[in-house]
Design a protein that fits this description.
heterodimer, A: about 650 residues, alpha+beta, Four Helix Bundle (Hemerythrin (Met), subunit A), five-stranded antiparallel sheet, 9 strands, about 65% helix, B: about 100 residues, mainly alpha, 3 helices, about 80% helix, elongated
């Protein structure tokens, strides 16, 4: 199976290069048959990458530790589902996963275009995607082959990092990759449009689903990463502005900006150059994110070449950046649109402001992420930029963004007047003001937290007003019942209301983030059996201790009774786990989640006579972050469900 | 055995890939002449302006713009759309004359 895997990768590279040759020949000779062959070549590459992926999965499932990658990320005791997911636990498997998903996406693009005749754009679209695929296949075949073997057969593997043995980690990397890779499609269409000078919005329309879908996957990936950090790492938070987190967050910000301005181009036929810039930037940042994480440069600039990938990724980045800038400069006159925005009081201008803020956030985050690298290059010393920098710079920008999220739906396209604004702002303004008064009355004094709550209420008020107005109008027109009108509006105008749901989810997240950051309580105590500790309204009693074996680990668990106002309301179990092949024990967090707060317990130590050290936190409204992010995903999916009417 | 299977699959894929290129060649690109390009641009211009009229009607219905602004914008977009339609007609007449 090892040779099978290696040859499959080589076959995939061969078919991709063949396909590029055929597509170029099709363009050069003006022959649609050659283009058709080129597309088939890409489907053959999909078949070959699928075979290579099956081969690697098989090697993991059959514990073939002669393969260095399998020996590094698996062992005999590893539960079967983690064996399957160990596929993407390391660099080499991740690259194969990239190549496979990209070839799958190319196949889906070919499938979705099957009814349309090939025009002058399509060969370029497939060429760009094939070029990207060939880059990853080249890395797999030449630099970082997951089928490389050891010259001996180890009795067992080194096992998977215990922190990665978490359900969140099964889905987090693939969803993130799906997001990154998905942006190859709009990028390819944009490049093709620039080459052929097709300045209309057809590339935006064709790639809208891909844009939003990739954004949804990227969002899910980021959320799952945060959730994994929260339940697995045991420090009580979900986001630490870690470079790996930032690497996915930066393209998310830019792609969010692109999704908004793409709407303007679709509706108004303006901002064509800006959209070209944004889509290229999104793709470049996706590759840059992968480069940051996979090149080793984050550890130290001196590790840049350690993985063997750094130089190749850098070269690829230079090629796509220089190529993109050159094409944009060449086609600038075709895409330039004079007199874009009619009034500063219009939805277009709020979209522009939102773009400015999103890009400022992306730039600040990028700067903070690469600053240690830059400082090491310039001074020889690595100066790390910590959480305070990101919080200080990004929090006000985020608050401005939330304000715009609320304002935007209240302003019409093209032109609005002050009197319209006054009328439309009345209800959300009152909601925001009242919520501010209530917050102050409840003792909320932290400026940023208070602002966040008020702005979230403003966004919520805006969306509720929009929805209720639409329901009332529909009822008046059709005579439908309120629930009937509510459902029909949601379905018939799902693109618009999908967006509103995303914004509502964002407002919920803001509330959760503000509350859990500003009003978190923490306490640490060492307890003997029968002793108690108190935090906030809760009292925890150490009731019992047990030790047992499960799968590939030995578990030490402390049972804790949870009391409130002297009444036993729940029971929690905090654990320490010793995994086979792991050098250090890990803590398993116990969480009691309600809408109001999370009671978060970790057990950093076990002493003599099963005396335990507990670290307990109360995170107010934290679950709102997960609910809000779930709503964002639901809204995104709703917005891309195709309309039959439109298709016909 | 595995290698043999892979070789067979690869040969099959190779034939599948090249099959269309052995068929009689057909042109891919029908180059648009200047007139066709102009027609396409006018079509886009017309669509954008008609869509813009729909948009401002909706904005008026939902109270986002005033009646005066609605009137002014509607006039502007109607004129632009009419110009595009007129130019399209002229272009069609020129083509039929030619």
């Amino acid at each position: 199976m090892i040779t099978f895997g290696i040859l499959s990768q080589l076959a995939a590279l061969f078919f991709t290069l063949l396909s590029m040759g055929l597509l170029l020949a099709g363009l050069g000779r003006n022959n649609v048959r050659l283009v058709e062959s080129g597309k088939r070549g890409l489907l053959s590459a999909l078949a070959a990458t699928t075979l290579a992926s099956i081969a690697l999965a098989y090697l993991f499932l059959t514990d073939n530790f002669q393969v260095e990658y399998v020996a590094s990320y698996s062992d005999r005791a590893l539960p079967i589902f983690y064996k399957a997911t160990a596929f993407w636990a390391g660099q080499k498997g991740s690259l194969l996963f990239w190549a496979w998903v990209l070839s799958l996406f190319i196949g889906l693009v070919i499938f979705s275009n099957r009814k349309e005749p090939d025009d002058r754009n399509t060969p370029y679209v497939y060429l760009v995607m094939a070029g990207t695929l060939s880059f990853f296949l080249f890395l797999l075949c030449v630099i970082s082959n997951p089928f490389d073997t050891l010259n001996f057969m180890p009795r067992d593997g080194q096992g998977l990092n215990p922190m990665l043995q978490n359900p969140g980690m099964i889905f987090h990397p693939p969803t993130l990759f799906l997001g990154y890779i998905g942006f190859t499609v709009p990028f390819a269409y944009a490049i093709a449009a620039m080459i052929t000078g097709s300045s209309d919005a057809s590339w935006i329309r064709k790639t809208r689903v891909w844009n939003v879908l990739s954004w949804v996957f990227l969002s899910i990936g980021i959320i799952l990463g945060g959730q994994w950090a929260y339940v697995e790492l045991g420090w009580g938070g979900y986001w630490a502005w870690d470079p790996v987190e930032n690497a996915s967050f930066i393209p998310w910000l830019v792609s969010t900006a692109f999704i908004h301005t793409a709407i303007i181009q679709e509706r108004r036929g303006v901002m064509k150059v800006w959209n070209m810039v944004l889509v290229q930037l999104t793709f470049i940042l996706c590759i840059f994110g992968t480069y940051l994480v996979r090149s080793g440069i984050l550890q130290s600039v001196h590790d840049f070449g350690a993985t063997g990938l750094g130089g190749y990724f850098l070269l690829f980045l230079i090629v796509i950046t220089v190529g993109g800038v050159y094409l944009l400069a060449e086609s600038y006159s075709e895409f330039k649109t004079p007199g874009s925005v009619e009034s500063y009081l219009s939805r277009e201008s709020t979209f522009l402001f939102n773009n400015v803020i999103l890009l400022a956030l992306a730039f600040a985050t990028l700067l903070g992420t690469v600053f240690p690298i830059l400082s090491e290059v310039v001074t020889g010393n690595k100066i790390t930029v910590g959480q305070p920098f990101f919080n200080q710079v990004n929090t006000p920008l985020f608050l401005l963004l939330i304000l715009l999220t609320g304002i935007c739906p209240l302003i019409g396209w093209r032109k609005a007047t002050v009197s319209n604004l006054r009328r439309n702002f009345l209800f959300p303004g009152i909601v925001a003001l009242l919520s501010g008064i209530v917050m102050v009355a409840f003792g909320i004094r932290q400026t940023y937290a208070l602002l966040a709550f008020v702005l979230a209420a403003f966004v919520g008020g805006t969306i509720i007003q929009e929805y209720v107005t639409a329901i009332l109008s529909r009822k008046k027109l059709t005579g439908e019942s309120s629930p009937g009108a509510a459902v029909k509006i949601l379905w018939k105008m799902r693109r618009r209301y999908g967006g509103h749901i995303v914004h509502f989810g964002l407002a919920m997240m803001v509330v959760g983030i503000a509350a859990s950051s500003a009003y978190k309580l923490e306490k640490q105590a060492t307890l003997k059996q029968g002793e108690t500790m108190t935090i906030g309204d809760f009292t925890l009693e150490y009731e019992g201790f047990r030790q047992y074996e499960k799968y590939n680990r030995t578990i030490y668990a402390a049972r804790l009774g949870v009391f409130r106002d002297g009444k036993r309301i729940d029971e929690m179990e905090a654990e320490r786990r010793y995994y086979v092949n792991a050098k250090q024990p890990t803590t398993e967090v116990a969480i009691r989640s309600t809408l109001a707060q999370d009671l978060y317990v970790t057990m950093p130590g076990i002493g003599q006579g099963n005396e335990i050290t507990l670290k307990v936190a109360i995170n107010p409204l934290l679950i709102w972050i997960w609910f809000g992010s779930g709503l964002m995903v639901v809204g995104g999916v709703l917005a891309i469900i195709p309309s039959r009417r439109r298709e016909s | 055995m595995e290698i043999a299977i892979l070789v067979v699959i690869s040969i099959a894929l190779f034939i599948y890939t090249l099959w269309p290129s052995f068929k009689v060649a057909e042109p891919l690109i029908v180059e648009l002449d200047l007139r066709q390009r102009r027609r396409r641009l006018l079509e886009q211009e017309k669509k954008h302006n008609l869509k813009a009229i729909k948009d401002i009607d909706f904005e008026l219905a939902t109270g986002k713009i005033s009646e005066a602004d609605h009137e002014e914008l509607k006039m502007l977009y109607s004129l632009k759309a009419a110009e595009a339609i007129e130019a399209e007609k002229r272009l069609a007449d020129e083509s039929s004359d030619a």
